[in-house]
Amino acid sequence: MKLEASLTAENINQKLLSVEYAVRGPILQRAQAIERELEKGVPKPFTRVVRANIGDCHALGQKPFTFIRQVLALAACPELAAAAAVPEDVKQRVQEIRDDCIQGSVGAYSPSAGLSLVRTRVAQFLEARDGVPASADDVHLGSGASDVIKAVLTMFAEQVDGKPSAVMIPVPQYPLFSGTLSELGLVRADYQLAEEQAWALQPHELERAYLQASEAARVRAIVVINPGNPTGQVLTRENIEEVIKFAYRRDLFILADEVYQENIVSKPFHSFKKVMHEMGAPYSGMELASFVTCSKGWAAECGLRAGFVELLRLQPRVAAAFRSARAVMQCPTVLGQCALDCAMKRPVPGEPSYPQFAAELAAVRRVLADRTATAYHTFNTIPGYFCNPIDGSMFAYPRVEIPERAQAAARELGLSPDEFYCLRLLEETGVCVIPGTGFGQRAGTFHFRTTILHPRDEFQHMMDCFRRFHQTFLENYS
Amino acid sequence: MKLEASLTAENINQKLLSVEYAVRGPILQRAQAIERELEKGVPKPFTRVVRANIGDCHALGQKPFTFIRQVLALAACPELAAAAAVPEDVKQRVQEIRDDCIQGSVGAYSPSAGLSLVRTRVAQFLEARDGVPASADDVHLGSGASDVIKAVLTMFAEQVDGKPSAVMIPVPQYPLFSGTLSELGLVRADYQLAEEQAWALQPHELERAYLQASEAARVRAIVVINPGNPTGQVLTRENIEEVIKFAYRRDLFILADEVYQENIVSKPFHSFKKVMHEMGAPYSGMELASFVTCSKGWAAECGLRAGFVELLRLQPRVAAAFRSARAVMQCPTVLGQCALDCAMKRPVPGEPSYPQFAAELAAVRRVLADRTATAYHTFNTIPGYFCNPIDGSMFAYPRVEIPERAQAAARELGLSPDEFYCLRLLEETGVCVIPGTGFGQRAGTFHFRTTILHPRDEFQHMMDCFRRFHQTFLENYS
Ligand SMILES: Cc1ncc(COP(=O)(O)O)c(C=O)c1O
Ligand SMILES: Cc1ncc(COP(=O)(O)O)c(C=O)c1O
What does the UniProt keyword field contain (chains A, B) (predicted)? Predict the structure, then answer.
């Protein structure tokens, strides 16, 4: 008789054992347990958990855009169009989409790169953004940006000259990258963002990280997250040029995670594509993968799972291999593609949906402007906190002073100081944020990431919690 | 100045270069080119292309189920509920789903395994199907079954005792499996289905395939597709028991692709889970992964991308690793989850949506019963064709006699005889089917796979094309 399972921790794909994703990690599990305790009436020093762990605007109260949702509804159930009072431009959009679906059904598989209509809209969006030609053939839709980011990284999972391949990622980073590199067996080459320079990428640090990783690995690609998650900065044009020059010199493929490009308060956004183009040869001939998603931007439709990569200047055999691997998975969700279509071509003045759309957009923008300003102000007026300007995204990543005695207490529990801090914060205030350990931070510094798009009252409550909690924390451990 | 791209056919992940997916391969590309030629007025011996390459019911004219689509529409846009004349049970279902979405929005991320409501519904469906307890905790939703099949296979991508891992797959198989094994670097251990025994799995053949692959690899798992794609057979209970005993003896993890379990005309479907359970110890203690999808069954919502795996009796650390890797990708599409919810809990007598639902279901069933019978009859009355009984799925996989002279003509062109056959069929009749090479077939035999769910007239036209074409083909090459 067999005693053991056939799949065990010893013989499972060992790379999976090291995959971590802090955003949905132990602190969230504890928060969920506390929610259940609260429901059961267990007494706590607070009445509800405030979740600030994940960048999900709808979960934080942002209302879905009416235009998008009406399009989705009628794309799913065209028969409702007769009865429902929806504007003409919604009906027309639905017609355009259905014309590109086989038999007009969003329930038919689409081409594996996505509906031709939607890819064309994406290309038009990119052209309008950059003033640089874009082709629908370079656009590959996915089930969220995560899906296509993983697909692109998969291409680098190969030994070169007997060395494993490495990919440069920022510290701090969004843990999709560290997690996916782990799963793929790609070596992480960490470069530090300069906190003292508003989280800029410093060429000498890129060079250092490259050289260090090159001892044991072949560095193949560099990931840049702009605007930053968790850091919220928007890179200057000069800084992007520096990164491009560095990547060119070191023959690195650039992966530009630009998913927060529309979540910016007032700075200009420069896409890597545009900057490369404007720099001219040889930079304008480099390969590039740039990622955008419906989960972010004003639409913020995380649950619909629609994103894309624009893949530029791939060699034909490389592009063909990418396409084949994608085709095996059939296609991204067609209703997600409908939402992406709306995000790429929004209502414009003169169209019946425009007034409501414009009002909804203004509300979203107001929330972002208000919360980034308030968070920045709050974090920089809490003694022991420091926070760089928050240009955009939907996060803040303040640095927090943690007294030596608290660090010792953390060690006792086998936790890092920032994990200990976030856990205490959760237990004492109900606020759930993610420790810097989940994203990375310079040794000896401690941070947490919080989302900041909560409704005003809840947001203010959360800010008050940080202030009060930190004061008590310092008193307890000084 | 750099001369080369940084990512090339030489340094890309070499495993991607061998990924093939015939269902969307060269024959489909040629069909699309012919469609464009027809549009431009290029004369052809036919007026339209009949696509029979992919198992996509909506693309073949099946109407979406009204209940599902009304639920989707209102889940996306609840405001329409007031105006639109939808039945009360639709509204109630939407309310239940929205209660499980954060802030009631399908645009918020769900838990990465899927909404708890939907996983509970899946468990209830499985319990009702098998009379065996099922737990929502064992259910993991994905963007189609493809997504979770790949995720499960990923767990086996590990060397064991210095040998690469192998997975047993049937021949013929659905090329998702061969493609994904290629991408993951898993060795294929092919076992032949017995065409002369209605595509049964023969224990001695399983044993042979196991032993042969074991010379160079460690065989870890076995994939069974039941009902079969491309073969359309439904396995007998006895045959399933034999497979389970074999897997037990050889310590193999069973992956049961049971996506066509509801696409059966009249035979009983036995799930691997139920059979294992009824066999009792030690078999009832084996691990199992079983796959179901909304793309198939009566719903046939391919474009919505919703499927699931029930993962039974995994070791806790294995389950945890699986969960972490899934979490990195956030979650499957929430609108897809809504459709799955409807597929798992359909309207029942007494509910307002039931009469229409029942009528729609009966129509779908009639089409399947009619087409399987007609295809079976037709293929067995074309001289030179042979076709096993088609119990279900939505495909036929007839064996075709290809004269020696035609085989020589194929070799001239660098094609396999069945590729040549399908290409000629396409060029002369406009019917697009996939050569057996894409699925696998015993050496020296030739097949093609055709979907069979076209509208009656188109279906009959296609059957006539096969008959006429084959006659001429035999005449030309005899
Ligand atoms: C920087 C960054 N990239 C990519 C993603 C992936 O988003 P999705 O898969 O929902 O499109 C996220 C999500 O939070 C993100 O923050
Ligand atoms: C046998 C089999 N398994 C799995 C799938 C995957 O389907 P999906 O990813 O659309 O759920 C298919 C699709 O055709 C199939 O035929």
Answer: Aminotransferase, Pyridoxal phosphate, Transferase
